[in-house]
């Protein structure tokens, strides 16, 4: 009974002494934004069905086998994606190290020495002054009992960092697929612009032959002939410039895919199938985005890091035990009389550490503030990103409708100008003016088609690119961080 009272008294004294190291006055300063504050009602985010479902391989909906092959190749060989995967492996290893700290440890040792025992020490003659072999064969075990959750919180922090790293891998994959698709559509745009320029050159060559015939017939002057001749080098220069851009875009796409000798045949934008787009920002946006999920898990990790840092202000209780053999003279090492063992608790408590624990806690608290503000920035950027893409998609649809009407009018005006010129009722300047309007509309039609596809890709990325969060991440995304 007396021994029990002594142990309880020692433990109480240890806890009181631990109070000498205090973490009072060190608290987080940042507050996480709620779903309501960014226009996403929290109840909706939890119960409303998705506005539009996005497949993880959403790019296949464009119905382009070459694009599918390019994305698959990029995902397999992208350095940026492999960097994200390496970070995930590192985070997982840190988690395993943190888990090991919560479990008992065991180790074995064998020590053999040749030693001279001094004549003025603990050992009497004839051992004193002699040279002997000594040996120790021992097995030991220890377990630091995590009374205050230091290691448990560290494990939770490592788990959060691992989940964040996994979400980073998904975000990198989504971004890479979007970059490849955008690069592919840019190449298709340049290819269509090149077709427009080549068509324009053929049209101008035909006009030039018409002007030359009229000059020979005395119906036109050298002025009209020079005007028609001047338009030909301009068309050829535009073709050459577009061919240069096509090659540069091929090189950029090859670098993105990781295959310098990439062999591709870009198709026309008209042959690509458009994707369905939502009418509004989905209520479950935060759960869709891997970058937001990663930011949310980093708050969880930082919160547990702070809790682990606070637990370091309390005592450590360690249970240790050993059993083994120790002897002077190796011949006696395995004798039963060489048996040695020991067991007992050890308590270590911080009393004065020159501010080390408080400085560590301040650092972890600053990391939490940083994680919270990064999360706030991520969710604001996510909402703005989707809103921008939706606005652009709607605007481009309206612009395309107006552009089609403008192009029809320009094509009609051009045909009338050519007919009037052939009939001698108009000047060649009228033909050039009408042709310029037609050329502008043809180029604009290609650009708007490319922008429509590019915006669809950007919207797929902004909506998470088909990211499939695990149930725990979905639960976390539906809650406002509280720390």
From TrEMBL:
Matching Gene3D superfamilies: Outer membrane efflux proteins (OEP)
Keyword flag Lipoprotein: yes
Keyword set for this entry? Coiled coil, Lipoprotein, Membrane, Palmitate, Signal, Transmembrane, Transmembrane beta strand
| InterPro entries registered for this protein in UniProt | MdtP/NodT-like, OMP_efflux
Signal sequence span per UniProt?
A: 1-23
Note the Pfam families from the entry.
OEP
Q: What is this protein called?
A: Efflux transporter outer membrane subunit
GO cellular component terms, alphabetically, are:
plasma membrane
Please report the record's description of how this protein sits within the membrane.
Lipid-anchor
As for subcellular location, the record says: Cell membrane; Membrane
The UniProt similarity line reads: Belongs to the outer membrane factor (OMF) (TC 1.B.17) family.
Q: List the Gene Ontology MF annotations in alphabetical order.
A: efflux transmembrane transporter activity
Domain of life, source organism: Bacteria
**Which positions are tagged coiled coil?**
187-259
């Amino acid at each position: 009974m007396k021994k029990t009272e002594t142990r309880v008294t020692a433990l109480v004294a240890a806890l009181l002494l631990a109070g000498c190291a205090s973490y009072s006055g060190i608290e987080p300063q940042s507050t996480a934004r709620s779903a309501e504050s960014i226009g996403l009602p929290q109840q909706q985010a939890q119960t409303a069905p998705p506005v539009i479902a996005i497949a993880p391989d959403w790019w296949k909906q464009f119905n382009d086998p070459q694009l599918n092959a390019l994305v698959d190749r990029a995902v397999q060989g992208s350095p940026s994606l492999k960097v994200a995967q390496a970070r995930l492996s590192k985070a997982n290893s840190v988690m395993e190290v943190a888990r090991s700290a919560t479990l008992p440890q065991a180790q074995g040792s064998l020590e053999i020495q040749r030693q001279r025992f001094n004549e003025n020490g603990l050992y009497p003659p004839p051992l004193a002054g002699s040279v002997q072999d000594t040996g120790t064969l021992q097995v030991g075990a220890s377990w630091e009992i995590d009374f205050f959750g230091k290691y448990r919180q560290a494990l939770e922090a490592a788990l959060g960092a691992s989940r964040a790293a996994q979400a980073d891998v998904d975000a990198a994959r989504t971004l890479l697929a979007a970059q490849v698709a955008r690069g592919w559509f840019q190449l298709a745009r340049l290819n269509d612009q090149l077709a427009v320029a080549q068509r324009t050159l053929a049209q101008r060559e035909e006009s030039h032959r018409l002007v030359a015939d009229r000059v020979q017939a005395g119906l036109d002057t050298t002025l009209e002939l020079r005007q028609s001749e001047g338009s030909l080098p301009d068309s050829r220069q535009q073709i050459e410039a577009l061919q240069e851009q096509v090659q540069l875009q091929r090189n950029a796409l090859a670098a993105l895919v990781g295959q310098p000798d990439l062999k591709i045949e870009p198709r026309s934008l008209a042959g690509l199938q458009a994707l369905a787009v939502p009418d509004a920002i989905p209520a479950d946006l935060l759960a869709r985005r891997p970058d937001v999920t990663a930011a949310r898990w980093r708050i969880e990790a930082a919160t547990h890091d702070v809790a682990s840092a606070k637990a370091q202000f309390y005592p450590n209780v360690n249970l240790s035990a050993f059993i083994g053999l120790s002897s002077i003279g190796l011949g006696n090492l395995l004798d039963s009389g060489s048996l040695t063992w020991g067991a007992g608790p050890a308590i270590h408590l911080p009393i004065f550490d020159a501010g080390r624990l408080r400085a560590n806690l301040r650092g972890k608290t600053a990391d939490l503030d940083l994680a919270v503000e990064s999360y706030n920035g991520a969710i604001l950027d996510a909402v703005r990103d989707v809103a921008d893409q939706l606005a652009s998609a709607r605007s481009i649809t309206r612009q395309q409708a107006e552009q089609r009407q403008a192009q029809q009018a320009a094509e009609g005006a051009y045909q009338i100008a050519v007919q009037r010129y052939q009939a001698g009722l108009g000047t060649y300047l009228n033909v050039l003016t009408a042709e310029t309007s037609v050329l502008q509309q043809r180029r604009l039609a290609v650009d708007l088609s490319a922008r429509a596809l590019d915006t669809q890709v950007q919207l797929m990325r902004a909506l998470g690119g088909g990211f499939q969060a695990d149930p725990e991440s979905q639960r976390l995304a539906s809650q406002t961080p509280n720390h």
